[in-house]
Amino acid sequence: MIRTQAEALKRAARHGTRDADEMPEIAALLGAARVAVERAIPSAVIFEGRRYYLLARLALQLDLFDSPGDSDPLVRGATFSSEEFGHVPGH
Predict the structure, then answer these.
(1) Span 11-53, pLDDT tens digits
(2) Is 41 in contact with 54 (CB distance < 8 Å)?
(3) Is 76 contained in some domain?
(4) What pLDDT score does 14 carry?
(5) Is residue 91 one of the residues assigned to a domain?
(6) Which of 7, 58, 59, 77 shows the greatest Cβ crowding within 10 Å of its Cβ?
């Protein structure tokens, strides 16, 4: 079903947004990719021997490929969030 939905997206006009409810499998795939990125955000970075604490908000463009050798993404999406990831201030 993901491949079928991805092909339908590729046939559609390139510029524009799509309602995630119209393609739930694609929405779930993009959501899983976003969660993977969020989980990878560190709470701190070391720079010149000193630890700095990192709090991040995300604006992501996600390109997901079906196989490593593909040059064209299976699906492309974007997500914006005011949620915070990484360091939790005040503790």
Answers:
(1) 776 666 666 678 889 889 999 999 999 999 999 999 999 999 9
(2) yes
(3) yes
(4) 64
(5) no
(6) 77
Q: Which helix (H) or strand (E) holds 9?
A: helix 2-11
> What integer pLDDT is reported at residue 8 of this predicted model?
77
SS3 31: helix
Are 58 and 85 spatial neighbours (Cβ–Cβ below 8 Å)?
Answer: yes
Domain count within the chain? 1
Bridge partners of residue 75, in order along the sequence: 64
CB 78 within 8 A of CB 61: yes
Which amino acid is present at 65?
A: F
CA 65 to mean position of chain CA atoms: 13
CA atoms of 41 and 25, how far apart (whole Å): 25
Q: Are 56 and 85 in contact (CB under 8 A)?
A: yes
Q: Output the CA–CA distances (angstroms, integers) from residue 43 to 5, 19, 32, 46, 55, in the order listed.
A: 36, 33, 21, 11, 7
Find the domain containing 44 and state its range: 2-86
